[in-house]
Amino acid sequence: MDMVSLSPLSNECNDFGVRKPKYINRVHTGYNWNSYNRIHYDKENPPPKMVTGYKFDVFYPDLIDGNKPPSYTIEKDGNSVETYVCIIRFHGGLPYQDIAFKIVNNE
């Protein structure tokens, strides 16, 4: 999973007390037993694993406005030629900067 750069001003953000939140991310993978895979694969010779989901734990222990919950947005990746990749961006509020990850778009 790739970390996405959000700002070319990362050194200036540290001067004003803005910091990155702590996070843990996990990628869940599994087998897709569709009709093609059932015919061509079995339990001894399984199909390739594919991404089935993600789990993001983002920690904001020092939020200034504790009443407003953190939010996320899913955006298209304008720089990527692959259409199956998108960006998930987490916004917590001050004093934390946004954090973003490239993920597989399985809609």
Write the layout of secondary structure elements.
Blueprint: H1 10-15, E1 22-30, H2 35-40, E2 50-59, E3 71-76, E4 85-91, E5 99-104
Give a verbal description of the structure:
It is a single chain. This protein has one domain (19-104). It is 11% helix and 36% strand. The protein contains 2 helices and 5 strands; from the N terminus they run H-E-H-E-E-E-E. It comes from Artemisia annua. This is Cactin. Residues 17-107 form the Splicing factor Cactin C-terminal domain.
Based on the model shown, name its key terms:
single chain; 107 residues; mainly beta; three-stranded antiparallel beta sheet; two-stranded antiparallel sheet; 5 strands; 36% strand; elongated
Could you write a compact summary of the structure shown?
By secondary structure, the chain is mainly β. The protein has 2 helices and 5 strands, in the order H-E-H-E-E-E-E. A 3-stranded antiparallel sheet has the order 3-4-5, with no helix packed on it. The chain has a two-stranded antiparallel sheet with strand order 1-2.
Overall mean pLDDT score? 82
Sheet with the most strands: spatial strand order: 3-4-5
Span from first to last CA?
18 Å
Q: Main sheet?
A: 3 strands, antiparallel
The total strand number stands at 5
The tally of structural domains comes to 1
User: Uncertain regions: pLDDT < 50 for 5+ in a row?
Assistant: 8-15
What is the tally of helical segments? 2
H-E string: HEHEEEE
Structural class: mainly beta
Radius of gyration: 18 Å
Q: What percentage of the residues does DSSP assign to strands (E)?
A: 35-45%
Q: Could you estimate the helical fraction of the residues in percent?
A: 10-25%
What is the general shape?
elongated
